[in-house]
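TICKET #2291
ISSUE: user wants both folds in one file
ATTACHMENT 1:
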Amino acid sequence: MSEGAALSYVGQELELFARASRWKSYWASRIRKWVGGDVLEVGAGLGINTIALQNKDVTSWLCLEPDSGLAEKLAKTVAAIPNCTVRSGTTANVAEQDFDCILYIDVLEHIEGDVDEMARAARLLRDGGHLIVLAPAHPFLYSKFDAAIGHYRRYNKTSLRRCTPVDFGIESLFYLDSLGVLASLANRLMLRQDTPSLRQIEVWDNFIVPGSRFFDRALGYTIGKTVVGVWRRLR
C-alpha cells in the first residue's frame, strides 16, 4: 500500500476471516479499554472490526478505507452505528482532524513505509491519546499467502517497537493466539497450504482460539501468532 493514494484491495482474506467471530471477540476484549473518545480506524475494510470495538466510551468514529469499492460496502455495514462516518482515503486525507484513539487492525503490515505511517498518525492524536496496532506476528511464519494479500512483513515485539513515534510511550506490547503458532507451523511443515480454507478457519476459530485464550493468560501473553502494540502520546 502506497501512502496518500486511493487503491484497490489485492486480497480476499477479509471475507474469509470475517467468519472468525470468536477470534474477533477475543482480541477486541483485550484492546477495548483503550478505545474511546474520537476514534480513527485506518483501513476499516468490511466494518466487522468497527462493530466489534464499539463501546460506551466512544464519542465518534471515522472509518478510513483506501479502497473505494470497499468503502461503499463499509458505509452500508456501519450505517446504523451512531456518529460513525466513512471516508475513502488514507491518513494523508484527514490532516484537519485530531483523535483520541487511532486503530490499525491487520493494516500496518500492508503499508510499505510503516514508520512514516505511524509518525503521520501520531500527528493526528491528542495529548494522552492512544495508537493501537494489531498485526500478524513472527517473520518466520511469513508465507506465500502473506505475499499474495499484500503483506510487506510480519512483526515481532522488537520490530513493532521500532515503529514508536517521537513523544510516544509504549503502554502495552503483547502476543495473542499461542496455540495458533503451533497450528501455523504444522500447516507449513505438513499440509503446506499457502491459503487457509474456510474449514481450517472454522476449526481454528471454534477450537484453537478458545484454547489460546486459556494458554495466553497462563503464559503471560508472551507467545502468539498475533502481536499487539499500544502507544500513548506523552505530549
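ATTACHMENT 2:
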Amino acid sequence: MSKFDFDYQLPEDLIAQTPAEPRDHSRLMIVSRNNRSIHHDTFFNLPEYLHSGDVLVFNNSRVIPARLRGIRPTTGGKIELLLLKHLSPGLWRTLVKPGRSMKKGAVFLIPNDNGENGICGEVVEVQQDGTRIVHLSDEELIPTLGMIPLPPYINKPVQDEERYQTVYGKIDGSIAAPTAGLHFTTQLIDKIRASKIETVFTTLHVGWDSFRPIDNEDPRSHKMHSEYWTLSEESAGSINKAKQEGRRILSVGTTTVRLLEQAALQRQNPNEYIGYGSGWTDLFITPGYEFNVVDSLVTNFHLPKSTLLMLISAFGEKDLMLKAYKEAIKNKYRFYSYGDSMIIV
C-alpha cells in the first residue's frame, strides 16, 4: 500500500473558503456500498436517508483558541504557536513558526491587547517530529489571547468563530473542528429526533493529525498522535442495545468512527459491541480494517493522501471512494472543512 494510492487532483477553486449558509444548505452526496450508486441532494434532506431506530452518534468536542501570536524579546521577531496537547500544568506540546529559531531555552512573550506582557513562555524541549514542549506562565489567559485555529488551506479569516463550531459542541479540547457536524442545525437535529432516530453524544478532541501530512510513502509506517476520548456508560448502552437489535449505528465524522472503534477494542463485556470509558487513542484505520460498530458514515471530502481519506476508503472501499471524489469534482462540490458532505450507506 502506498499513500499515492489515495491521491487525486483537486482544482484549487473547489477548496471551500467560507461555510454554506444556512449550515444545512450544503450539498449531500449519497454513496451506496451495496450497488455502488451515487446520488446528489442537499444536507437538509439527510433524514430521508435515515431509518426509524437508527442511532446517530456525534462528537461534541469544541475547538479551543489554540493559536497564539507572540514576539521574541531579544530580537523583536514575530512567532506563532499552535497548542497541540496539554501535558501538565503550564506545559504544552506545540507547533511553532518559525521553528528554526525556537530552540531549547528560547523565550517568547504573548502580549495582551495593550501591548503588555500577557504570557511569558520558554521552549523546554524540541521533539524529533519538530514539535516543541513549551512552558506558559499563565494558562488562564489562553482563552483571551488565543484565536481559533483554521486549517492551512483556508485563507480567509474567520468572521464568526461559532461558525467553526458545531451547534451541539460542549466540551473544549479540539484544535480542529469535527467538520462533518458543521452541517447540522438545531432544527435539523430536532427533525431527526422526531423521525424516531436516536442521537448519542461522545467526545474526541481532534488533534494535529486532521491535517498533518503522511511523510513516508508507505502509510503503514505513519504514527498517529494520540487524541483523548470519552464515552459514557449511558451512550455505550444505547449503542449496544441498538446493535443487539439490528439497528444501524451512523457515525457523524471520522473522529467519531475512531472513538467508537477504539471503544469497541476496549469493551469490558465480550457479549457487547462497545465499552464505555475514556483514554487516548492513536488508532489508524486503513483499508483491510474490520469495523466493529459503525454501519454508516456522514463525512466531508478530505485531502488527498490523508489519513482521513484512508479511513473512509477502509469503510467505503477505495475505488468507490475515488469514484465518488471524481464525481464530486465533476459536479463542483466544495471540499474540506467548510465544504460539502457525503453519507456512505
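RESOLUTION: both attachments delivered.
EXTRA DETAIL ON ATTACHMENT 2: The two ends are 25 Å apart (CA to CA).
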